[in-house]
Amino acid sequence: MVLLLRVLRLSILLSLSRWSLATESHPLYTQIPSLATFTPATGSAFEFSSDIDILVRRNHAFTGSPTAFDFAETFREDLLSIASFTHINPVSLSSAKSSSSREVIFINVDPRLNFTLFNGKPTNEGYKISINQTSITISASAPIGAWWGTRTLLQQLVVAVANGESLSLPAGEIIDSPGWEVRGFMLDAGRHWFDTTFLSELCAYASFFKLNELHLHASDNLWNPAFLYGEGNEGWKNLYAAFRFQPPPGSPLAGLVPRKNESWTQADFHTLQTNCARRGVTIIPEIDTPGHSLVINQWKPQLMVNGEPDHLNLSHPETIPTIKSIWDEFLPWFESSEVSIGADEYDAALANDYISFVNEMSDYIHTKSSKSIRIWGTNEPSTTMSVSKNITIQHWDFPGDDIPVELMASGYDVINSEQFFLYLDEKTSDGGQFPQELNQDLIWSGAPDGKGWAPNIFSPTDPTNNTSVDNPHLRGSIMALWCDWGNNATTKLEIYYQLSRSLAVFAEKAWAGSEVRETGLTRDQFDAVYPLLNAATPGQNLNRVVKVAKGNLVYNLSDPHLPFTTSIPSVGPPYTLTFNVKPSSRSPDTGILFSGIDSVLHVSNLTFEATGQLYSLGYTLSQDEYTHIAIHATRDYTYAVINGNSDARLYWTTLMDIWGDYMAVGNMSFAAPAQTIGGGAFSGSIKDVVLQLGE
User: Fold this and answer.
1) Selected catalytic residue, list 345, 380, 418, 426
2) DSSP string of 88-122, one letter each residue
3) The domain made up of 2-176 is a member of CATH 3.30.1380.10
């Protein structure tokens, strides 16, 4: 792959990446997250080949969902991709690691095995890998542990391929398990639409770094005070708000989802959950109430707090039955053992109403489905009531949130999503409040003692607000990417660009902590190996990498017969697309110039379409002569040079409404629409089409 070839130049840095516990003759490569222990052994290395057998121990091969056999089949597909083998024998069952071939990978699920988190609690996500010349045995107490073991093997192979070395692993034993049970990322799907194909690819990407949850914030609204608040104001009726689960035809909840093109059917969501689960990632769905509930109040205005249409009136007799009816409809969709009801940023003057609602919904959801709930931390000032300790609190803010160390001391389970460390917000943030990717300085050295962030760190300045890594009530951490400016602020691939590196560095800290283990990564080690792993993560192609036959040229078409279809659905930036175009006078301003799976370039005003939004360049093509256009794209911008006038670059931009206070302009990055040339009602000529990698 082209991107993989590009990062080969980093291989010189990988001298930094030999793992510290490995001897010179028995090396393991650095990987993300780092491994707990590796003990080298005497003997020859295990050599991978296409003759390899992948065997699953028969005893527990089909226990759980996904099963060890399911995971083994996905591992086989990934191994084919990374090792570039043309064939690997089908996965089979065995009572022992015997095989007719020389090389065997044996997956052994044995519930008697014990692995623990940092707090000493048992975890089913640990694994042991035993390596000798003829076999690799992955042992775990549950299928998910074996799955994480396969990620370790594949990461070792990725670095070997990038380094031009043999596909082998040294003899020895790896023992590894996570420090915390919750290692996830949240995506704001309430304000920005994401299709399930994209979300499935995100799961595959996150899984490679051993993240195990995708928290989907699936209902919300844009926040614009001028529209939301004020006596007699009705602007809230048209403010963007969305609920992403689509009720079945005829459901009494149909009015809850006015944007059916921006919602998931039950079949869509089932496929998403299955795809993610087969890669070890659980979907945690969130339906946010009683705040952030404009979409519900647009459907049933009688339920809103007077003057606050994004808040539910919990005293109205229809409110709680309506919320329960929503959960009744969608709880059967959800395969996770936990769900989130949101429950943040509600009116502090209504503290008792809020606490009563949260506790009632916790009991109701558990009674209906045996699921427990999570809520965002919200310090509601009540002296007579408290939130049930059966509910997990997801901390996100000082000082408006409850103090997490006090919550844990009182017996609450807590997940760390502290915004100072773990929040991202689309393309432009209010006053630069949040970075475009996780702040690397904070992650590597932002704790009060100068060490790196870890899930036990809630404050960068006050050690008393932090806890120990082994606190029994610290469940782990979830980083968050919010979409406060809505659909038009970013494309879905731009969201991936924000997440890609952030997820990997977060994964290191969420699994291994920060300087807890001697084998934890340094920043230099991470920086050296991350590009290699990013380029080769199996099960997805969010970088939209394409294979080219020679140099950087994707294709060169002198006079394609329109519409012309290629074998390339999309090309990720950086790229340059040049062409000559002359629309016919019969339809000078209609039709499509180029289209692909991620973007479309329309004739009219040279308008890009991506993620359902339109971004116009405002340029009208001549009907009388050819116009030469060169489109240049990076992950930060896309611009056009018209007729060779490089001094007059025209950038595709977007306009974002920041909190209803001011409008901000942002550059747009588009993947190249490489699949079809010409289309729709286009009439005219497109010729001399050249698409090449690099700006």
Assistant:
1) 345
2) -PPPEEESSS--SSS-EEEEEE-TT---B-TTS-B
3) no
